[in-house]
Specification:
12 helices; alpha/beta; 11-stranded mixed beta sheet; 393 residues
Amino acid sequence: MQPSVRCREIDVTIKGLTRVAKWSYGEPGSGNALVHGDNIQVLNALAESYASSVKCAYLDPPYNNGECYQHYLDNMGHDEWLSSVIQRIEQIHRLLAQDGSMWISIDDSEVHYLKVASDQIFGRENFVGTVVWERRTTRENRKALSRNHEYLLVYAKDAVTWRSSRNTLPLTEEVKGRYKNPDADPRGPWQSVSANVQDGHATPQQYYALRAPNGRIHHPPKGRCWVYTQAKMQEEIRQNNIWFGKDGNSAPRIKRFLSERREGLTPETLWRAKDVGTTTSAKKHLLALFKQKSLFDTPKPEQLIYRVLQISTNPGDLVVDPYLGSGTTAAVAHKMGRTYIGIENGDHIKSHCVDRLKQVIDGEPGGVSEITGWNGGGGFDFYRLKSAKRRGK
């Protein structure tokens, strides 16, 4: 079923933008917007109404890798390219909420230069990490090295705030499978963790000879101590929270029950194709959506953006994509019940993005529709810069 969260309503009188009814679709006033125009001008126009309001910004700029693609030639001078992207990042920084984050897709061509430039805007202390995405699973034989991965540089407006507010990922079946119940504990499946820890900050009460229920004496390994004081440890043993192995002779371990686990999985920096898709899977999805229309050469799979928004946002939060491309970020945000503003300068914002979002609203079943329970609904408003030509009115 579709998300029921009421999204923030966008101000239809945003300075510098004009709503175009012909290209808008679905329920009005949803807060979702597609904006046609140069992204630096649009970001400037949004600054007055949306400063410190954006929870997640996803950027997929041209990679400046010298390749010729269907919709653009990706070959600017390095200095010109870097200056262009920096200007956009500076605007994004202004728009981000205190607990907001920015995710930038990039490849080997410019990743290191972009990292240094982004550090200067956000501060090195607010760099969260580099995600490595396995974008292809086949070998590329035309290159000296087969480049099977790309990167996402992740920055927070404030890293300390973001760390405490970002979401964990749901437990996988593999992780759930690690929980067993060899002693038929009525509390259900559990897994064990070490009952000793490094002794760097230990108290004298954490060093003692531990007597197991069968009488065997255990000592913590050298350089380590027991996690509990002796009194606390004996209480945990009485409550059947300490495991000494099936025969009772093993080193003590603490039982952690699946039913009591509140946190999910800490996001990792290696994202495999089997979990978040590939460029090839994204192309197949676009082919199903657009039929006879020309496809993008390097689209991002919906599963990849889903993972980004899973970690960085909650239903109703505002997401911005200043390089909307084929509309993937807007489509995923819509299915996840997030508010979004997607910006694109090319005419494919009408031929591809509008068409794609219409299909989403009508219940398009591909991409992440199944895992989000999506079956349609909502709407978006289409805007253009007031200085732009009045095409499509």
